[in-house]
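Now for a specimen:

…
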Amino acid sequence: MLPKYASAFIDNRGTERIRLRRTGWQTIYVPAAVGTPEFTEAYTNWQKNGQIKVGEARVKPGSFDDLITRFYKSTEWSDLKATTRETYRGELERFRAKYGERSAATMTAKHVSNLLIGMKATPSAANNLRKRLGQLFDFAQRQGMRTDNPARAVRALKTRKGGFPTWQEEQIAIFEAAYPLGTTARLAFDLALYTAQRKSDVRLMGPQHLRNGRIKVKQIKTDTTVEIPIHPNLAKSIAATKTGHLAYIISAKGSPYTYDSFGMWFGRKCRAAGLDGFAMHGLRKAASRRMAEVGLSNQLIKSITGHKTDSEVSRYTRDAEQAKMAELAMQVLASGGNPVLASETDNIEKTG
């Protein structure tokens, strides 16, 4: 079934293509098939950015409006992944909303530094803006709009070590109590915890990705494809929740969340449950921690998370509970080196 404003046709080469067309909107052609993550991404981006705005072309020459508009039309922009463009666009547009009419040629390193200091409560967001401005000023130099890059002279803000905190069983229980089965927040939580995937992939998971008791995920960040058996708890959560046809988790507008808005929405749900400082990425770590605690090897953990190296896994499993790990180690030692005892196999089913 085609979504709204989409139509299928056969081009002159005999290939079926999907066209997205709406009055007052840019018409685009999507090469990916309906139901794939690539189509969902393209459709979501079009819904967000496809409308032609009156007066959009009337920007002040030399302004950040002018520079960013040119950047969006450049080949280096089109060469980026669609999901990367979406993330970058959100960061650039927030900056543009405040400073779009200002001259792009007069911003100094001190101005950039002051911007970052003003965002010290969210250092990661500040550092991301520094990166985007660095790219923007590099492009401005190539466009003849600047002779330097002031963002390169500014140091990044210090961020907390270890990244997002790993959810422990206490926080998991608090969230589950706050959001029972059948709520959208609980389904988003369960999708993250029981698939161990990134939020960029969780937000696009939908019924079309579920086949023969497995959910197939093509990871946006790495292009790695993983097929993950559905955990019984996740199956119950999906069955109990009203979901969208393109994605399990949809916004009030009836479409999947953007990368930034999905993270912000889930963050609000965490804070409302009294879990300030916790985020969806910490659930990916929690899933890895749980797998480590029941004695799964790095190779088995990587088959779920999609990580490529043991060092990447170790960053996620370092928060495995020491007492549980020590008990498992001693049991294996006492068994004469048997890597997985029957009791641990049972534990895998219970703990997941």
About this structure: DSSP finds 16 helices and six strands in the chain. Strands lie at 6-10, 16-20, 28-30, 210-211, 214-218, 225-229. The first strand starts at residue 6 and ends at 10. Residues 1-52 form one domain.
